[in-house]
Automatic annotation (TrEMBL):
Source organism (scientific name): Streptomyces tateyamensis
Stored Gene3D superfamilies: Hypothetical protein apc22750. Chain B (3.30.110.70)
PANTHER family reported for this sequence: UPF0145 PROTEIN SCO3412, UPF0145 PROTEIN YBJQ
InterPro entries referenced in this protein's UniProt entry, alphabetically: UPF0145_dom_sf, UPF0145_YbjQ-like
Record's protein name: Heavy metal-binding domain-containing protein
Family in the record: Belongs to the UPF0145 family.
One Pfam short name: YbjQ_1
Amino acid sequence: MSTFDPTAQGVPADAMRRLAELQPGKPGSIFTSDLSVNEFLLVREAGFQPIGLVLGSSIYHVGIQLGRWGKNQELETLSQAMYHARELAMTRMEAEASQLGADGIVGVRLTVEAREFGSDIAEFIAIGTAVKADRPAPGGTSWRNNKGQPFTSDLSGQDFWTLIRAGYAPLGMTMGTCVYHIAHQKMGSVFSNIGKNVEIEQYTQALYDARELAMARMQAEAEELQAEGIVGVQLNAHNHRWGGHTTEFFAIGTAVRPLRADHEIERPTMVLSLDG
């Protein structure tokens, strides 16, 4: 039976044994990857060797939160739960990559799947391909981020290749979440709006505020990594099982840095054709 090793940040012992068989350079070691053939070739062309598939999982019970349902408000307890569950999965995936001596993880997928153990229980899963660079980053520096952890990126293999070729490196996936309750309309407002084209400002403001909170938290994580920016940002809304008036807004993207301080992206030269 698999047991959890606290020194490995919750990675099961069975997983640690599997990773031991994937050590680069070990005779008979075969890498595993969820990259497509095209993605695999482009990651190799970018100068990175796939080592093995790494994953992290957290089965999490998301509690309840009481509040004044007649007002727009963030449900902070639920926001923290949804963030912490994803963070556990990401941390365990990174621990597996560190065990392999990887410089980073590409093609990361972060998903939430409902389980039949209960209506408030879900599994949070992070999975990607650990890679090791063929050579140090320009200037002889490490490809790892400023926290000494393998970089993580949810970019496709094609976008990862383009990023490296453009002179940038991923630092890590940054995310922000906000679970928000949107107040019900008062009965008088419902009746007054019947048959009219009219903005429901209460709903507009609630959704705007919720998205802004998620985006600001994602940006704060990028600032901690000393990133220049975030690429491939996705801003999604999930109702999960809370009902129509409670929604999670989840922002995620890949924080990046230039490989050289004086780097400038080459711009294509425009060629003008004069007829006649």
